[in-house]
Write a structure and sequence with these properties.
Bound molecules: zinc ion
Strand order of the largest sheet: 1-10-9-8-7-6-4
Mean pLDDT: 95
Number of strands: 10
Largest sheet: 7 strands, parallel
Helix content: 25-40%
Order of helices and strands: EHHEEHEHEHEHEHEHHEHEH
Length: about 325
C-alpha cells in the first residue's frame, strides 16, 4: 500500500459524544453510531490512517480483565486521576473469546482507508491489573503477552494493515526494559502485519536508548512540548545525536491533547513538524519513515469539537509542509 510522505494518523481515543452512555468495553448501538460519525469526520478531514476512536472503551486495562472474566478490585485511582476497578489475576490467564476483533472489523468495514487494529500491551496490562497468581514479573508479562498475541493474530487474519500495541506504562518500571521488549516480542510472534507501539506520559530520556531494540515497525511518541522547546529539550538532543528513525519508523506527536490547551494555529504546528524533521529525518530518504499525529488519544481533550479542530490544523500543517518540500 502506497502511503503519502508524512502520513497523518490518530493515536486511538476520541471524546465520547453525550449520547454514548457508560463504558462497556464492547460495541453497542450508541458507540456504533459514534464510531461511524468519527470515521466519516476523519475521512473528511483527510487523515491517512484512521483510528476507531475507542468510543466503546471503558479502560484499556480493565476491559481486558472483564473480557477474561477476572474478578475486579475496588475503585483504584489511575494515572489520569480517574477511578477504575482493576482486574485481579488469581488464576492462569486464559482468553475466552476475541476482545478487540469485533471493534476493528466494524470500524474497518465503514471505510476503504486503513484503520489501525488497537491492542493494549503486555506490560501495561501487567502494571494496571493486580497479580495474585504469577508472583513473578516475567511470567506475568509473558502470560499477558500470550493473550495480546492471540488478539494480534486475529486482527491480522481480519485484514488489519496496521496493529498498534499501546504501552503507556513503559516508563513506570524503566529498569524492566528487557521484560518490556520480551513482552512485545511474544505479543507479535507469528504476526507479519506492521506493528506500532504507542508510548506516552513517559520520562523519555530514561528509556530512549532502549527503543531501538523494540521488535516493532514503528514507535509512536508524544513530542509537541519538546518540539516547542527545540534543541533545549534533552530528549530532542538525544534524538538528534542518534535518531530512532535510523532503526524504525516514527510517528511524531505534534498536537497537544491535554485538556484546556487551545487549538494550535497552523504555523505553530508547521514549525513543530520542521523541528521534528530536523532531528528525525536529517537525510531526505528518512522522510518516508515519519508519520505525523497528535501526542496521544484525544479522550483527554474532552471536547469533540476542539479535537476535530486540532485534527484539521494538523492536516493543514502537514499539507503545507508537503507543498513546501515538494513531496
Ligand atoms: Zn498516549
Amino acid at each position: 500500500m502506497k502511503l503519502p510522505l508524512l502520513s497523518t494518523t490518530g493515536v486511538g481515543s476520541f471524546p465520547k459524544p453525550d449520547y454514548v452512555k457508560g463504558a462497556k468495553g464492547y460495541l453497542d448501538d450508541d458507540s456504533k453510531v459514534a464510531t461511524e460519525e468519527f470515521i466519516r469526520r476523519q475521512e473528511e478531514i483527510g487523515i491517512d490512517i484512521l483510528v476507531d476512536g475507542e468510543l466503546y472503551r471503558g479502560d484499556m486495562a480493565t476491559d481486558y480483565a472483564r473480557a477474561l472474566g477476572l474478578p475486579l478490585s475496588d475503585w483504584t485511582r489511575s494515572y489520569d486521576n480517574r477511578f477504575w476497578k482493576r482486574g485481579i489475576v488469581d488464576a492462569p490467564l486464559e482468553r475466552k473469546e476475541p476482545i478487540q476483533l469485533e471493534q476493528f472489523k466494524y470500524a474497518q468495514g465503514l471505510t476503504d482507508k486503513p484503520v489501525k487494529g488497537m491492542l493494549t500491551g503486555p506490560t501495561t496490562l501487567s502494571n494496571w491489573n493486580y497479580d495474585k497468581h504469577y508472583g513473578d514479573r516475567e511470567k506475568l508479562i509473558l502470560a499477558w503477552a500470550d493473550i495480546v498475541n492471540k488478539e494480534a493474530l486475529d486482527l491480522e487474519e481480519a485484514g488489519a494493515r496496521f496493529i498498534q500495541i499501546d504501552e503507556p506504562a513503559i516508563a513506570e518500571r524503566h529498569w524492566e526494559g528487557e521484560l518490556f521488549r520480551m513482552g512485545l516480542d511474544k505479543a507479535r510472534e507469528g504476526v507479519n502485519t506492521y506493528i506500532i507501539t504507542h508510548i506516552c506520559y513517559s520520562e523519555f530520556p530514561m528509556v530512549y536508548s532502549r527503543l531501538r531494540d523494540l521488535p516493532v515497525n514503528q514507535v509512536d511518541i508524544e513530542l509537541s512540548n519538546e518540539l516547542d522547546l527545540g534543541l533545549k529539550s534533552r530528549l530532542l538532543g538525544m534524538v538528534k545525536e542518534d535518531p530512532i528513525s535510523n532503526y524504525m519508523d516514527v510517528a511524531a506527536g505534534v498536537i497537544d491533547v491535554r485538556p484546556g490547551i487551545p487549538v494550535e494555529d497552523v504555523d505553530t504546528v508547521v514549525k513543530r513538524i520542521y523541528t521534528a524533521l530536523e532531528v528525525l529525518a536529517p537525510k531526505d530518504e528518512m522522510l518516508q519513515r515519519i508519520w505525523i499525529k497528535p501526542d496521544c488519544g484525544f479522550r483527554t481533550t474532552k471536547d469533540p469539537d476542539m479535537a476535530y479542530k486540532k485534527m484539521e490544523v494538523m492536516v493543514d500543517a502537514v499539507r503545507k509542509v508537503r507543498t513546501e518540500l515538494g513531496v
